[in-house]
C-alpha cells in the first residue's frame, strides 16, 4: 500500500474564522483527525463523519506516533496543533517521530496564527520591533535556563512575550520573571495581558511592570503577557512599540 501523508495543521487561536484556507483544505481532505481534545473540538464543524482520535494533554508523543503509523498505512492524517505548529506546537515532535520511523514519509507543516500575533493584534502593535518569545513552563525546560533567557532578553531591550505565564502548580514563576526583568527595565514599562486571544472568551488588561502583580489572579495558561521595551508606550488603550520611522 502506498504511504499516506501527515498534515500538521495550525488551528490558530481556535475559532474557525482564523483558520487559513490551506488548513481547512487539509482537514477536509483527511481520512483521520488526531489532536488534543480541545483543539479537535475547535474544528468540530469540519470533521463530521471522519475518524477522530482525541486525547488529553501530555499525550503528545502518542499522538505523533499514531499519526505516523496511520499515514504509513496509507491514510491522510490531519494532526491538529494549537496556534502555529512550529511555535511551541506539534511540528518538531512529529518530524522527530517521523524521522525515526520513516524518513521518506510525506509531512506538510501548515502554519497558523500564533498566540503572540493574536494577542499583539488585540493590544495594538507591541511587536513592531525586535522581540523575544519565552515560555515560563519548566516542565520540559529547567528554570535555570528560562531565567538565563529572561535576563538576556531584558538586558538586550527586547519586547518580551511570555507564554504559559502562570498555572496552579506554577503560580510564582511570573512573579520571579517580573523581578528579573525589573533589574533591567523601569517599573512604568507597559505590560499587556490577553487571555483567550481570538476566542469568544477573550479579555485583556493594560498594566505596567511595576503593577503586574495586581493582575496575577486574572492570568492563567490561556493568557499571554507582553512586556514592552524601553520605547513601548500606551496610546489610550493601544500598546505601541515604534519601529523607528520619522514622523
Fold and architecture overview:
The chain is of the alpha/beta class and 247 residues long. The chain has 2 domains: 5-110, Tetrapyrrole methylase, N-terminal domain (Cobalt-precorrin-4 Transmethylase, domain 1, 3-Layer(aba) Sandwich); 115-240, Methyltransferase, Cobalt-precorrin-4 Transmethylase, Domain 2 (2-Layer Sandwich). The protein has 7 helices and 13 strands. The strands form 3 sheets. The protein has a 5-stranded parallel beta sheet, with helices on both faces. Strands 7-8-11-9-10 form a 5-stranded mixed beta sheet, with helices on both faces. A 3-stranded mixed beta sheet has the order 6-13-12. The longest helix is centred in the first third of the chain and has 13 residues, at 60-72. The radius of gyration is 20 Å and the shape is elongated. The chain starts with a strand and ends in a 7-residue tail after the last strand.
Q: Quick recap of the structure?
A:
This protein is an alpha/beta fold. The chain has two domains: 5-110, Cobalt-precorrin-4 Transmethylase, domain 1; 115-240, Tetrapyrrole methylase, C-terminal domain (Methyltransferase, Cobalt-precorrin-4 Transmethylase, Domain 2, 2-Layer Sandwich), CATH 3.30.950.10.
What's the number of helices? 7
The structural domain count equals 2
Radius of gyration: 20 Å
The coarse overall form would be elongated
Strand content: 25-35%
